[in-house]
Design brief:
The protein has helices at 29-42, 68-74, 153-158, 166-169, 186-190, 303-307, 381-385, 391-405, 413-423, 460-463, 484-490, 585-595; strands at residues 85-86, 96-98, 106-110, 130-131, 150-151, 202-205, 211-213, 223-230, 236-243, 273-274, 281-282, 291-292, 295-296, 316-320, 326-332, 352-359, 362-370, 374-376, 473-476, 480-481, 494-495, 507-508, 514-526, 529-540, 551-552. The chain is an alpha+beta fold and 609 residues long. Among the domains are: 1-45, no CATH class; 68-247, no CATH class; 463-595, Beta-clip-like (Beta Complex). The strands form 8 sheets. Strands 2-3-8-9-6-7 form a 6-stranded mixed sheet. GO terms for molecular function: methyltransferase activity. Residues 439-555 form the SET domain.
């Protein structure tokens, strides 16, 4: 009877017949060869090792030259079982923190030797352990050190706490690297912001595999820690970490909401299940979690507590106060605590938060409450718990709720910088420093640093007799802008002798082939607006042939009762002085408009300097 090759991988051979491999002296060579083939078919490709969470320990084939990222990309992305079958947040196996959960904010920590670091999923040290590609975050002086997290490749694929998916993270459209859960914000990732979750400054939990954005996503009920982390060099570095609310001391809650927190429907006919760890109620059919760590879940625990979700600070919440009714408020940071509450026994304790109450339409009074008594405000909360409130109070509730719902997703500084560069991009090359737009069709391929740039042999524009057309940018007229007092002292408006620019060598002519125009250059893009600066550019107003001198009209005016220098340009309509030329004003205006297509031409007014 044929024997399946994956007998050991399918979980046993109870129903398979016993096969006798006893060798006899009279067995023929062909029969022995057949027995060897059948014996090799029974040999498993990989021994099975069961961990505490039911994962299979798969050894990476050393003969495979591909990286772990390439191996995961080559596989078909498996259907994520989250949140039906989830895993709890794993404890840190690569970090030893000495902290007793007291009111102090200081703790000592160190990394164990690499040989003693276990897989953070299955807690085994055998097999091929892979290292995380990320960097450890939180060190105050920004000292870079690698992340010490280790894991088996197959264990990482099956880990799905907070909807973690290693196969998605290694994709090019995500991070393109093999990263552990300490390198993205846990709250943002659950909110489906799976790109911005990896950006920004993260602060890690000292006891589990979770991280959060320090400024915008600090979880309600956490505690800040200043950890003195000892590295391999023996020096202790100050590191910013937190203790997330998953490590709080849980107590049983007796009073609950009267509406399902998942569907927000108050159905008196259908019985609500009440969570033993928080004030939430839920319909059994609304809870999607069926098992945690391959174990069935209890009926008296809500999905929020099972998945270990967190609520951001500054979120509008409903708080059960003194085992009575629910009142609206907002979760605040510990540093906003009034002095009178800083001696409270639950001040800065894991599992408690500062609540700013909404009273008479104002956020002004504070109290300390357990996060088990808090739940994010939802749409039905106004109808359920605002029946006995005044109209002003209800309007304040609505404003607080609308402010949270209409808040756009957070934008990190790095994303703002990328958007600014895209919006203000003028050149195709990053090395170019000019801030003007030159059409690609008018530019040759000559290297900027070439000594014989645009020579007769190499330049495509020279070979095709392509010369400078009207409106083509020549150079920026750079110089120093001075006030009227300095003008009287120097008898000039812009002095360019201090700048080594090409405009230093452009002479005056009463029949010029160039003209100065004013351009608006974007300098900074800030939250309160954009900052621009006016610059002067020299542009062509007619076709300029090879070896033709560049000139423009200086248009000097007698403002200081001093003589205007004489002009010796020699053209037919020479005015005799370095003053305004006799060019037809209408033709000159049309050429200026052609030279600055996208910018408004400044009004032709006399300078008052």
């Amino acid at each position: 009877m044929p024997v399946p090759a994956n007998i050991f991988e399918t979980g046993g051979n109870e129903n398979l017949p016993t096969i006798d491999f006893t060798f006899k002296s009279d067995d023929s060579p062909n029969k022995l060869l057949e027995i060897k083939k059948r014996r090799s078919a029974l040999k498993p490709t990989q021994p099975k090792a069961t961990s505490g969470v039911g994962h299979e320990l798969v050894k990476v084939d050393n003969r495979d030259a591909r990286s772990p990222e390439e191996i995961l990309r080559a596989r078909e992305i498996e259907a994520v079982k989250w949140p039906r079958e989830i895993m709890s947040h794993a404890k840190r196996k690569h970090f030893i923190c000495d902290y007793d959960f007291s009111k102090t904010i200081f703790a000592d920590a160190k990394f164990p030797p690499d040989s003693e670091i276990h897989c953070f999923v299955c807690n085994r040290i055998d097999g091929d352990l892979l290292n995380c590609r990320g960097m450890f975050s939180g060190i105050v002086n920004k000292k870079k050190t690698r992340c010490r997290t280790k894991f088996h490749l197959n264990c990482l694929m099956k880990y799905n706490a907070s909807d973690y998916n290693a196969q998605y993270i290694v994709q090019a459209e995500c991070q393109n690297e093999l990263l552990c859960p300490l390198h993205f914000c846990d709250i943002c990732y659950l909110d489906r912001r799976k790109q911005s979750a990896f950006s920004g400054y993260l602060v890690e939990c000292a006891f589990c595999m979770r991280a959060f954005h320090q400024k915008d996503c600090s979880p309600m009920g956490c505690k800040d820690l200043e950890v003195r982390l000892q590295l391999e060099d023996g020096v202790k570095y100050l590191t910013e970490m937190i203790v997330c609310p998953s490590h709080r001391q849980k107590t049983r809650v007796t009073q609950h909401l009267t509406v399902c927190c998942d569907c927000e429907i108050e159905d008196k006919k259908e019985e609500l299940s009440k969570c033993k760890s928080c004030v939430r109620s839920f319909h059994p059919k609304c809870r999607t979690v069926k098992s945690v760590n391959n174990r069935p879940v209890a009926i008296d625990v809500c999905e929020f507590c099972l998945t270990g979700e967190c609520v951001r600070l500054r979120t509008p919440i409903m708080v059960r106060w003194r085992a009575k009714e629910f009142y609206p408020g907002r979760a605040r940071e510990w540093h906003s605590t009034p002095i009178r509450l800083r001696k409270h026994k639950y001040y800065d304790i894991v599992g408690y938060c500062l609540v700013e109450w909404l009273i008479d339409g104002k956020l002004s009074q504070f109290s300390i409450a357990s996060i088990a008594d808090c739940v994010p405000m939802f749409e039905k909360s106004l109808k359920l718990y605002g029946k006995n409130q005044s109209e002003n109070q209800l309007n304040a509730w609505r404003a607080l709720l609308d402010d949270e719902m209409l808040t756009p997703p957070r934008v990190f500084p790095v994303l703002k910088e990328v958007k600014r560069k895209l919006d203000t991009a003028r050149y195709f090359s990053k090395d170019c420093e000019k801030a003007i737009c030159e059409p690609e069709v008018n530019m040759c391929n000559c290297a900027e640093n070439d000594e014989n740039r645009c020579s007769t042999e190499d330049c495509a524009n020279v070979r095709t007799f392509f010369e400078c057309p009207p409106g083509e940018f020549i150079v920026e007229y750079a110089g120093e802008i001075i006030n009227k007092q300095e003008l009287e002292r120097r008898s000039a408006m812009i002095g360019n002798a201090r700048d080594n620019e090409a405009n230093l060598y452009i002479n005056h002519s009463c029949r010029p082939n160039c003209t100065p125009i004013k351009k608006l250059i974007l300098l900074k893009l800030r939250n309160d607006g954009a900052y621009y600066d006016h610059r002067i550019a020299i542009v062509a107003i007619e076709d300029i042939e090879k070896d033709e001198e560049l000139t423009f009209s200086y248009q000097m005016e007698n403002m200081l009762n001093s003589a205007i220098p004489e002009c010796k340009c020699g053209v037919e309509n020479c005015s005799g002085f370095l003053s305004k030329s006799s060019i037809n004003d209408d033709s000159k205006k049309s050429m200026k408009r052609k030279a600055s297509l996208e910018l408004k031409r400044p009004a032709a007014k006399k300078s008052k300097h």
